[in-house]
Specification:
The complex is a heterodimer of chains A (about 475) and B (about 475).
Chain A: H1 9-27, H2 33-49, H3 51-62, H4 66-92, E1 95-96, E2 107-114, E3 117-121, H5 129-140, E4 144-148, H6 154-167, E5 173-175, H7 180-188, E6 193-197, H8 200-213, E7 217-220, E8 226-229, H9 235-247, E9 259-262, H10 264-282, H11 298-310, E10 314-317, E11 321-322, E12 327-328, E13 331-334, E14 351-356, H12 360-368, E15 375-379, H13 383-392, E16 397-400, E17 421-422, H14 428-433, E18 435-442, H15 448-451, H16 460-471
Parallel strand pairs in A: 3-4, 3-6, 4-5, 6-7, 8-9, 8-15, 9-14, 13-14, 15-16
Antiparallel strand pairs in A: 1-2, 2-18, 7-17, 10-13, 11-12
Chain B: H1 2-14, H2 21-37, H3 39-50, H4 54-80, E1 83-84, E2 95-102, E3 105-109, H5 117-128, E4 132-136, H6 142-155, E5 161-163, H7 168-176, E6 181-185, H8 188-200, E7 205-208, E8 214-217, H9 223-235, E9 247-250, H10 252-270, H11 286-294, E10 300-303, E11 307-308, E12 313-314, E13 317-320, E14 337-342, H12 346-354, E15 361-365, H13 369-378, E16 383-386, E17 407-408, H14 414-419, E18 421-428, H15 434-438, H16 446-456, H17 466-483
Parallel strand pairs in B: 3-4, 3-6, 4-5, 6-7, 8-9, 8-15, 9-14, 13-14, 15-16
Antiparallel strand pairs in B: 1-2, 2-18, 7-17, 10-13, 11-12
Helix pairs in contact in B: 2-4, 2-6, 3-4, 3-6, 4-5, 9-10
The chains are: A alpha/beta (about 475), B alpha/beta (about 475).
Protein name (chain B): Aldehyde dehydrogenase
InterPro entries (chain B): Ald_DH/histidinol_DH, Ald_DH_C, Ald_DH_CS_CYS, Ald_DH_CS_GLU, Ald_DH_N, Aldehyde_DH_dom, Aldehyde_DH_NAD(P)
Keywords (chain B): NAD, Oxidoreductase
């Protein structure tokens, strides 16, 4: 064991593991649909057999309430597994594409092929979900995979290291444990795709490491997700949804509404409903509620308290904290300026700053001055307001009149843009992310005489024929018999 | 200066000028006019750059660009429209769709072998997707670069699309700026540098790189036809095509026949003296000429081999009995040398291919379906054409791009539009149906949890009666509201 308590042999074992997985991939064992389905079904069993242990690990790492653990770590993953199992056969089929006249007699299709050995790096805030949801896509697409869970969520890391080899093929999938040093070593190796969830600064290092081998990457990063509340609205419902989305997992979600932009009137009307909702969710003393999470580490707790201390805003709700239990009460801060400490970094905690603006234009301008966020929320009963915000801003994903839930829909791709990331996954998108789309054309041996048009010696009339044949397309040419 | 260019473009982009489809169509129309009105100038520039024949220019560059423009003009409304997706019970009454949006300012770095297509085809997609763009044509095809810099501002909105010319220092300066996407066509070595530069700003990239595209000729095939097609694809543009068949793999028994057929075809295409044929190009410059010529060193010349440095001319050359360790098999040839490597059957050919980096294209000639099936199933490459070469490039419904060392990302037709757009996931909800939401709010009860799980499922949604489910969802929600404490 090294000083940090990690098994050192794992460092040297990385090369061995990689070799084993490469060998397995080269043997073609992951190609048949039957193999992939078996692995996905095994993943399902992993969840079914170990629900209690999973909930316990979540609780140990983040004091995650059972409710949240079930919804955001178990259900969402199990749903995606089912989705993949029921659709895999059709996803794997080659898709035939339309051809032009010159290629009418040929078969043109796109094959989805596995990339090889992929690396999936997880994060600590949803430690199971953020590593296993990408794995579904990787398995479905026929790859082998190395999982590198976050060392900060130790109980989950330990659980994964124990359960994955027990349920999934040890030839094809492996869990590597360790911290920053081990991850750095891991990244020196060559992968066929790297999937990373985490912070922007680490993402840059990952991209640099990937550039050495020309490895494609998917980056699921963060940022400050703005929540614009404007115009006519159902205050009570808005407050409930906002509070739920913000304080879920004690604010430690990459798509949590980071801050609110609204007029002073809206703020004043909203605050009592926020108070009321917090009480109905967590009771009069949230610290006693079994349904509120805690901050993941002392370091993060310190960081959040520091932000609160430095902030020049006014705390109108909450503000209490307890270092021993890493507890911070659901807190709302008003009169927050652009320059405030709370506005300089992604909060990632149960602190909600409310900034006041005088017009929708001002709010949109504010949002556009900043980096593109992972999610953007607009609360309003007026569809005009929602549309304006949608049209004039940019973000990874967008949800109106609710928070977070857009990521539970398997039909929607989940990912960032600009500083909030690149690439996406969930549902079929995960399968596509981990596949290579190979364009294939099967030419006929016949009609070599037509090919003559393209051969030298070149002449003008051949060119006009070719021009016509390559531009003429599907609709309306179905019956053409020139060929 | 480069920073000013990019900042200026970003400001104009943010003003929203390129959002309306009408504007994008206008720009595409202007680009089309540029090509048709200046076709002769373009042909002249390419003749000076590569000794490219005028018909070759149209065939290999202009037709593809024009097709892409016409396609984008007619399909743009469809491409840019919101794309609805599958819902679950929870979202039965919501609007759920993917909204394609422009990324911002895109950098397109071109290359010298098809200087117009390699820059303008990506540009068509960039414009269609609503982006602003900086074009950096290759300085090696200097006449084309100069012409592009002169013509583009005469036709396109110069505040949204700009050409920056220059060499390595200018490119490096450009790469220091922040773009919303970088589209690079060129070598793997420089591809790594581009990706490294992009990493600093977390910029996504599309890399269209190269590699050695293998061409397997099975003994069961029409060798004469196969060789005609291979000869065409290999020696067009003097072998300087990223998807040219780089080398041939075949069984020893058919090697001589292949050489014979290629010889016949070369005679037909370029006559007895390719040097004087108006249809045969030249190597781009003396540096590449020297590089390509040196690759012939250890090899046995079966056909051709002549060269003339003053003209950067290398004759169409076929090399036989080439061994895997020869220098010619260590790098992408990118010239008119066609090595033949003999293998004992399909399995060995597949092994040979898989021992190397994944190529941009792979070719297999066979009348035997099982051979083709195995080749496709057991190898990987950017794209494939079976029983011909290059042609998968011409079908714009096929995504064109590499994998592994040959690149990442894809384009052509709608794929360019998609590659240069952000696919924003949108969920439009109303405040209604709050009863449904109750299931997910704390405090936790067993009943709440059961209901929350039920509504999250989408397995039940695969039947088409979404309305039925919506009604049921409504009823359940009303029931829920009454039950929940």
């Amino acid at each position: 064991l090294n000083g940090r308590g990690f098994v050192v042999w794992e460092l040297f074992a990385i090369c061995e593991v990689l070799e084993r997985l490469r060998g397995a991939f080269r043997s073609g064992v992951t190609l048949p649909v039957h193999f992939r389905l078996t692995q996905l079904e095994a993943m399902m069993s992993l969840f079914e057999d170990n629900e209690t242990q999973i909930i316990e690990a979540m609780h140990e790492d983040l004091a995650k309430p059972k409710f949240e653990a079930v919804l955001s770590e178990i259900e969402i993953v199990v749903n995606d597994i089912c989705y993949a199992i029921s659709n895999l056969q059709s996803w794997m089929q080659p898709t035939y594409v339309a051809t032009n006249l010159a290629t009418k007699l040929d078969d043109c299709f796109v094959r989805r092929e596995p990339l090889g050995v992929v690396l999936i790096i997880g994060a600590w805030n949803y430690p199971l979900h953020l590593i296993l949801l990408p794995l579904i896509g990787a398995i479905a697409a026929g790859n082998c995979a190395i999982l590198k869970p976050s060392e900060i969520s130790r109980a989950t890391e330990k659980l994964l290291a124990e359960l994955i080899p027990k349920y999934l093929s040890q030839e094809c999938y492996a869990v590597i444990r360790g911290g920053a040093e081990e991850t750095k070593t891991l990244l020196e190796n060559r992968f066929d795709h790297i999937f990373y969830t985490g912070s922007q600064s680490v993402a840059r290092c990952i991209l640099l490491a990937a550039a050495v081998h020309l490895t494609p990457v998917t980056l699921e990063l963060g940022g400050k997700c703005p929540c614009l509340i404007y115009g006519r609205l159902d205050m009570k419902a808005a407050a409930k949804r906002l509070v739920w989305a913000k304080f879920f997992n004690a604010g430690q979600s990459c798509v949590a509404p980071d801050y609110v932009l609204c007029t002073a009137e809206t703020r004043d009307a909203l605050l009592p409903f926020i108070k009321e909702t917090l009480e109905s969710f967590y009771g009069s003393d949230p610290q006693q509620s079994p349904d509120l999470g805690r901050i993941v580490t002392d370091r993060h707790w310190d960081r959040l308290l520091e932000l609160l201390k430095k902030s020049e805003g006014k705390i109108v709700i909450g503000g209490e904290s307890d270092k021993k239990t890493k507890y911070i009460a659901p807190t709302v801060v008003v009169d927050v300026m652009e320059s405030d400490a709370l506005m300089q970094e992604e909060i990632f905690g149960p602190i909600l700053p409310i900034l006041t603006i005088k017009s929708l234009d001002e709010a949109i301008y504010f949002v556009n001055e900043r980096e593109k966020p992972l999610a953007l929320y607009a609360f309003s009963d007026e569809s005009q307001v929602v549309n304006t915000v949608l049209e004039r801003t940019c973000s990874g994903g967008f949800c109106s009149n609710d928070g977070i839930v857009h990521m539970s829909l398997p039909g929607l791709p989940f990912g960032g843009v600009g500083a909030s990331g690149m690439g996406n996954y969930h549902g079929r998108w995960g399968f596509e992310t981990f596949s290579h789309k190979r364009g294939c054309m099967m030419r006929s041996w016949l009609l070599e005489r037509v090919n003559v048009l393209r051969y030298p010696p070149y002449n003008e009339s051949n060119l006009s024929w070719l021009r016509w044949a390559t531009t003429a397309k599907k609709k309306g040419w179905a019956g053409c018999s020139v060929m | 200066m480069e920073k000013q260019v990019v900042d200026g473009l970003r400001e104009v982009f943010q003003s929203g000028r390129s959002r309306p489809l009408q504007y994008r169509k206008q720009q595409l129309g202007a680009l089309h006019r540029l090509i048709t009105e200046h076709q002769e100038d373009i042909e002249q520039a390419l003749k000076q750059d590569l000794n490219r024949n005028t018909y070759n220019t149209s065939l290999f560059e202009l037709i593809s660009i024009e097709n892409d423009i016409k396609l984008a003009e007619s399909e743009m409304a469809d491409w840019a429209a919101p794309r609805p997706v599958k819902k679950n019970l929870n979202s039965a009454l919501d609007d759920v769709y993917i909204k394609p949006e422009p990324l911002g300012v895109v950098l397109i770095i071109g290359t010298w072998n098809y200087p117009w297509a390699m820059i303008l085809q990506p540009l068509v997609g960039a414009i269609a997707a609503g982006n602003a763009a900086v074009l950096k044509p290759s300085e090696l095809s200097e006449h084309s670069a100069r012409l592009m810099k002169e013509l583009l501002p005469l036709y396109l909105d110069k505040e949204m699309y700009q050409v920056v010319t220059g060499g390595v220092p200018e490119t490096q300066e450009l790469l220091r700026q922040r773009f919303d996407h970088i589209f690079y066509t060129g070598s793997s070595a420089v591809g790594k540098l581009v990706m490294e530069a992009a990493a600093r700003h977390l910029t996504p990239v599309t890399l269209e790189l190269g590699g050695k595209s293998p061409c397997y000729v099975d003994k069961n095939c029409d060798i004469a036809v196969a060789c005609r097609r291979i000869t065409w694809g290999k020696f067009a543009n003097c072998g300087q095509t990223c998807i040219a068949p780089d080398y041939i793999l075949c069984e020893p028994s058919i090697q001589d026949r292949i050489v014979e057929e290629i010889q016949k075809t070369l005679l037909e295409f370029y006559q007895t003296d390719p040097k004087s044929s108006p249809d045969y190009c030249r190597i781009i410059n003396t540096r590449h000429f020297d590089r390509v010529l040196a690759l012939m060193n250890e090899c046995t010349i079966a056909l051709g081999g002549e060269s003339d440095r003053s003209q950067c001319y290398i004759a169409p050359t076929v090399l036989k009995d080439v061994l895997p360790h020869f220098k010619i098999m260590q790098e992408e040839i990118f010239g008119p040398l066609l090595p033949i490597v003999t293998v004992n059957g399909l399995s060995e050919a597949i092994q040979f291919i898989n021992a190397r980096e994944k190529p941009l294209a792979l070719y297999v000639f066979s009348s035997d379906k099982t051979v083709i099936k195995r080749m496709l199933a057991e190898t990987s490459s950017g794209g494939v054409t079976v029983n011909d070469v290059l042609m998968h490039y011409t079908v714009d419904t096929l995504p064109f791009g590499g994998v592994g060392n040959s690149g990442m990302g894809r384009y052509h037709g709608k794929h360019t539009f998609d590659q240069l757009s952000h696919h924003r996931a949108c969920l439009i909800k109303s405040f209604a149906m709050e009863g449904l939401n109750d299931a997910r709010y704390p405090p936790l009860t067993a009943a709440r949890l059961r209901k929350a799980k039920f509504f999250m499922q989408h397995r039940l949604c695969s039947c088409s009666g979404i309305c039925v489910w919506a009604v049921i969802a409504n009823l359940l929600a009303i029931g829920l509201k009454d039950n929940v404490p």
